[in-house]
Amino acid sequence: MPTDPQALARELMAAYANRRQIAVPPSAREGGLDVATAYAVDAELARMRRAAGHKTVGRKVGFANKAMWRVLKLETLVWSHMYDDTVQFVQGGEAALSAARMYSPKIEPEIVFKLKRPLGEGEAEPAAVLDAAEWLAVGFEIIDCVFPDWKFQPADFVASFGLHAALVVGEPRTVRAETIPELVDALPRFTLRLIRNGELVEEGSGKNSLRSPALCLAELAAGIARQPGAEPLGAGELVSSGTLTASHFIAAGETWRAEVEGIDLPGLDLQVSM
């Protein structure tokens, strides 16, 4: 039987709300789940959340790595919505986050953009993409998975909120016309150190997000434009542009820090509680 997007949206919503594992991912069930149907599930989740009084505030991406596309038979990255009650803005570079409602959370450091105008399929060059951005910042994307052992396919990712549990956004830097050439050069080259309780966990780079977070933003706009019925990227939206390191499990009592070098962006500290 074909997958019912409404029924699957209700199942996934309940699993995350109740911190309950889903033993068999939708893609592994009889009839399977393709990416196109998964986007219908994401649209239904957005409808349900809006009906409950929440707003969609942007998109997060997944599989911002072309090597993974070949393995997973993807033509582009995938994406899902973010919401007004899952995004937290930081003042002073320090934030606290409760993971009590999460099932199996991990952390990913990313570059977050806010758009000042719509971004369409034809704007592929980094300078044009950055011209559409109001600001950028370092952020921590917190992802959560209700499938056993974090095993899933891209369609499962899309249908399950893109694994999005929270986004913590650091202090932004405004994108000005005169700074765009510098940003075009810095975004593929800068380095980020992910630190837990004072010890280095991993070092990443802007190139890990489709060779540049700006190029990732362009690819997202193009992918959305090619997806039938998808809402285009609009002014005011936030975009979490793909992780710069591997994802790492988080636990109560830990302090995580992102330090950047090679780009004018403040670092970010996060204290995790339960």
Strand content: 25-35%
What is the CATH homologous superfamily assignment? Fumarylacetoacetase-like, C-terminal domain
Q: Which class do the helix and strand fractions yield?
A: alpha+beta
Shape designation: globular
Any idea how many domains? 1
Mean pLDDT rating: 95
The N- and C-terminal alpha carbons lie at a distance of 40 Å
CATH architecture field: Alpha-Beta Complex
Radius of gyration: 18 Å
Please trace the helix and strand order, writing H or E for each element: HHEHEEEEHEHEEHEEHEEEE
Task: Compute the number of helices.
Answer: 7
Give helix % range: 25-40%
Task: Please identify the top-level CATH class.
Answer: Alpha Beta
Question: Oligomeric form of this entry?
Answer: single chain
* Sheet of most strands: 9 strands, mixed
Which fold name fills CATH's third level, the topology? Fumarylacetoacetate hydrolase, domain 2
Describe the structure.
The protein is an alpha+beta fold. The chain has a single domain (5-273), classed as Fumarylacetoacetate hydrolase, domain 2, CATH 3.90.850. It has seven helices and 14 strands. The chain has helices at residues 5-17, 35-51, 66-72, 126-131, 154-159, 180-186, 213-226; strands at residues 56-62, 78-83, 87-89, 94-98, 106-115, 133-143, 164-169, 173-174, 191-196, 199-205, 238-243, 248-249, 255-261, 268-273. Strands 1, 2, 3, 5, 6, 7, 8, 11 and 12 form a nine-stranded mixed β-sheet that branches. Strands 4-14-13-9-10 form a five-stranded mixed β-sheet, with no helix packed on it. Helix 1 packs across helix 2 (35-51). The longest helix has 17 residues, at 35-51.
